[in-house]
Amino acid sequence: MKKRIFLILIALFIFTGVNSIVGQKVKQPKTGNTKQQIKRLNKLEEQKVKDQKNAEKDLLKGHKKLQDKSTRKMMKKSNKKSKRIKKGKRSESFWRKLFRKQ
To answer: Where are the domains of the chain?
Structure first.
């Protein structure tokens, strides 16, 4: 009786020990150096941003095509004006103010 209990305890000890040893021998898949991983992630982010900008540009072009000619002209005019304001220049040039009908 004591031998059986002793053998069972030894068997349990061996099985649990082997299981932990085998678990440690499993190698993790190599994903490369951390610097390489960072470079790869940065490259993916840049590509994602670039794709988003291209998609936005395509949507704006499609929206512009749907408008009639007078609306496109108005959109172009307001776009130029906003770009001038962003640069810190006057909203209207000197010549336009000088020769404008009043």
So the answer is: 32-62
